[in-house]
Amino acid sequence: MPAMRIAVSLLVIRKAMNFGLITCSLLLAQVLFLSAMWVESTQNAGSDDLGTQASKNTDDSLLTLHTAVSEVHLVFVVTDKHGHYVKDLKQEDFKILDDHRPPEKILSFKRETDLPLQLGLLIDISQSVRERFTFEQDEAIAFLQQTLRPKYDQAFVMGFDMTPKVTQDFTDDIAKLEVGIHLLQPGSLTAMYDAVYYSCNKLLKQSQNIPSRRVLILLSDGYDNSSSVTREKVIETAQRAEVSVYTIRTSLTAGGRGQKALETIAEATGGRSYVPTQIAGVANAFTAIQTELRSQYAVSYKPTAFKLDGRYRTIEVQTPNEKGLRIRSRTGYRTAKIGSESDP
After folding, report:
1. Which of 193, 192, 216, 194 is nearest to 203 (CA)?
2. What does pTM read for this prediction?
3. pLDDT-flagged residues of the chain (< 70)
4. Which of 12, 161, 228, 247 could form a Cys-Cys staple with 126, CB 3.0–4.6 A?
5. Are 302 and 87 in contact, with CB atoms under 8 Å apart?
């Protein structure tokens, strides 16, 4: 291809010489402009594909994108009025509404899902949690030891004060994760929303050879005084990345803005918020999260009248024939917006 372009350029220049200096100059300028445009487009293509394998053609790329965004993966839990997990329901026991309409097609349904975990452990290391920090580190290690399955699940460790700090990237090696937790050191101010936002994007970019559950466990008092992103942006990003956020409040004083912030994030993403009343309650919260992660339903479906219009679509899961049950799932998601694309 480069040789062909050079040949065409020389031919144009040769013809230009027959039309005089002015005409030649104009044609030369045109050649140089087109060459510059070709170089720029080549460089842009290279930068867009950095770290990834380029698609064979534009149509293939768009097709992959349509396929990815038009299939919704939903993980949810069902409990009775006493808070006990209900694990024996069938697909026909549920009614799913996406944007207030039943899905076009249910692609898969699993009970007590045993999907691999992609888990992020976020630990507040700001000054406000200094007194309980060592205990929280120990309980986080115990949780990973009991929950993570080598060669099956993966986790990363992050501490945050004013900035998020990954001390151990994705691995299934418990020993490395333990070292990562011990490397955390108490800091100063708190940018909790920035840390959750960063972690959701990190989970979203992590490759998935097979379907996985994306989970964040956030240990914090819930107060934020340094973030550049809003709570609403955090929730939107978590929903788009299909991340369930479980929060454990590290402050032993109930109520306040911190607790409300943690509860709002957990509820909107299909997770759960725990508020221990004493320091030993942190261990109980970790145990409860471990149990819930093994007591879930997973469904994949194709939404009805799906469009890449950037609009927020609500999700609701019901059990019409089973009364008195409570279902927790993420409450919706925002679609991507690409030009004026219509249904895939």
Report:
1. 216
2. 0.76
3. 1-69, 209, 339-344
4. 161
5. no
